[in-house]
Write a structure and sequence with these properties.
With 388 residues, the protein is mainly β. It has three domains: 110 residues, Immunoglobulin-like (Sandwich); 94 residues, Immunoglobulins (Immunoglobulin-like); 140 residues, Immunoglobulins (Immunoglobulin-like), CATH 2.60.40. Helix content is 8%, strand content 45%. It is built from three helices and 27 strands. It is rod-shaped. The structure holds 2-acetamido-2-deoxy-beta-D-glucopyranose (NAG) (2 copies). The site of one 2-acetamido-2-deoxy-beta-D-glucopyranose has 4 residues, from loops.
Length: 388
């Protein structure tokens, strides 16, 4: 058409010949439409190449919401737009009968609107002329990640599931596993819904080991209905009970209980004899010994626990004489039992910073010394005794 007009401009005679041919080629032009859910679109419909009398424009549709072909509105010069089967105010006539423009605007488009629209011009004398317009919807998927909260183990389990729900067209869901490639695998599935959307699911499987714990992976979703590729980051969490309980000395008379666990452990301190000395306080995981007195003497126990289990660590406190000397020992209950049965014998580490005052139950055997006040574990090794 543009070219024809261009020619008309420069070659008047030739062009008028062509134009007269075009004028005879009556046609109705539509055009397919793709629109995002909830948006507004135009259903274009234009009549060209005729000088005949246009008496009415009518629209028919076959959609998901109206699967049987139906007339749904008519447009006449005198009455304007008239709905046929119930008034759907989302349709507006934005054309112009004098220009042979029958275009409609549709707002708040939903999946029920998707389908074929037929635009019909009623002419005199040639009768009905029509075209079909396909309305296609884009529905962006709803994205989500589900953490399967795997507990530490040696069998393969589902770790996390990524879902792109209700997408049109269907979304592609992939996992980027970085350094875990080869250690994890994925499974994919998709379901098409009656409303024309598709839910695509991809799950990541692996052995829930400490090795994969805290690894960052990404779920990547692509769909024509999304403006851009979406990437959902996920840090793999492997859940486990407190592993080993360490009691760390902090300053002169403060001891922090530490245990690796996921979720993070809660700590409770108490004393083996169930009494609690006034001059000892606990704040969070830390035991604080205030005024040094023999009231503090005894075996203290720190219990680390989370919903997956619990584990204990022990601290033996012994304050000797009035000059505020504390000896503490970390050892297991098991060993304690053994020791209790024998004449007490502690292996200990001597810091050397302070002179050791006579404590009859201890013998210095430096060769067997372990890390100072560091670790206690359940297999019964006496780790350290320390004097200040
Ligand atoms: C609209 O889509 C249909 C089906 O894909 C196709 O046959 C037709 O040519 C398209 N119409 C236009 C104007 O692009
Ligand atoms: C399509 O159907 C699915 C499944 O019934 C539903 O979850 C989803 O919300 C629907 N989508 C729209 C846009 O109505």
């Amino acid at each position: 058409m543009g070219i024809v007009l261009f020619k008309e401009h420069y070659f008047g005679f030739l062009a008028s010949l062509i134009l007269s041919t075009v004028a005879e080629a009556l046609q109705v032009t539509g055009g397919n439409v793709t629109v995002a859910l909830g948006e507004t679109c135009v259903l274009p419909c234009k009549l060209t190449g005729t000088t005949e009398t246009l008496s009415q424009i009518s629209w028919q549709r076959v959609t998901r919401g109206a699967p049987q072909k139906e007339n749904f509105l008519t447009i006449a010069r005198e009455t304007g737009l008239t709905p046929v089967n119930g008034d759907d105010r989302r349709f507006t006539f934005i054309g112009n009968m004098s220009d042979g423009d029958g275009s409609l605007q549709l707002s708040g488009v939903n999946l029920m609107d998707e389908g074929i629209y037929i635009c019909i011009f009623t002419l005199f004398p040639s009768g009905n002329q029509k075209t079909e317009i396909l309305l296609n919807l884009f529905v962006p998927p709803v994205l989500s990640l589900e953490d399967h909260r795997p507990a530490l183990g040696s069998e393969e389990v589902a770790l996390v599931t990524c879902t792109a729900a209700g997408s049109k067209p269907p979304a592609e869901v992939k996992w980027l596993t970085g350094t875990l490639t080869g250690k994890v695998r994925t499974t994919n599935s998709s379901t098409e819904h009656p409303n024309g959307t598709t839910t695509t699911i991809s799950s990541l499987f692996g052995v829930p080991s400490r090795e994969i714990n805290q690894h960052l992976v990404h779920c990547v979703i692509t769909s024509a209905a999304l403006m851009k590729k979406e990437s959902l980051p996920f840090t793999i969490q492997v859940y486990f009970s407190p592993q080993e309980v360490n009691i760390r000395q902090q300053g002169q008379s403060s001891f922090e209980c530490v245990a690796e666990a996921n979720p993070r452990a809660d700590f409770t301190w108490n004393r083996a004899d169930n009494s609690w000395p006034q001059s000892a306080t606990v704040e969070a995981a830390t035991l604080q010994l205030m005024s040094m007195s023999s009231h503090l003497n005894g075996l203290y126990q720190c219990e680390a626990s989370n919903s997956y289990g619990r584990k204990r660590g022990h601290l033996y406190v012994h304050v000797t004489s009035g000059d505020c000397v504390v000896c503490w020992t970390l050892f297991s209950l098991l060993l304690l039992a053994v020791i209790a049965g024998l004449t007490t014998m502690f292996y200990f580490y001597k810091s050397g910073k302070f002179p050791r005052t006579g404590e009859g139950t201890s013998r210095n055997r430096k060769s067997d010394a372990a890390i100072p006040a560091e670790e206690e574990d359940e297999d019964g090794r006496l780790q350290a005794e320390r004097s200040v």
